[in-house]
Amino acid sequence: MNKYKSFIQNQYEKAKSTASGFISSRGEEQEEGTIELNSQYYVELKAIADMQGTNVQAFVNGIIAQYLVSVNAQYESIPISVDQKEENPLLYLDGICKLED
Predict the structure, then answer these.
(1) pTM for this one?
(2) Quick check: 76 and 94 in contact, CB under 8 A?
(3) Rounded distance, CA 101 to CA 98, Å?
(4) Which of 21, 32, 49, 64 suits a disulfide with 59, CB 3.0-4.6 Å?
(5) Is the pLDDT score of 80 beyond 80?
């Protein structure tokens, strides 16, 4: 009977440990996509989002999307000189690929 009790206790501890691992890994996955905002910024963003009839998450996602578009546009608009293309022939290939798009 004592062996059976220790076996059940051991199985219980294994199940508890496994469940704890699942719960903690799920929390880590959720934290991966989250960011922390300064509380003052959050209050200001919340007020703006309320005026626009949206929530802070949608508002911040819009701001981030606009920022990424502007950053990508800056890098794409930098002209590449002929000397740079001659030093690095891959730049020619990159220009040809962009023409086909």
Answers:
(1) 0.45
(2) no
(3) 5
(4) 49
(5) no
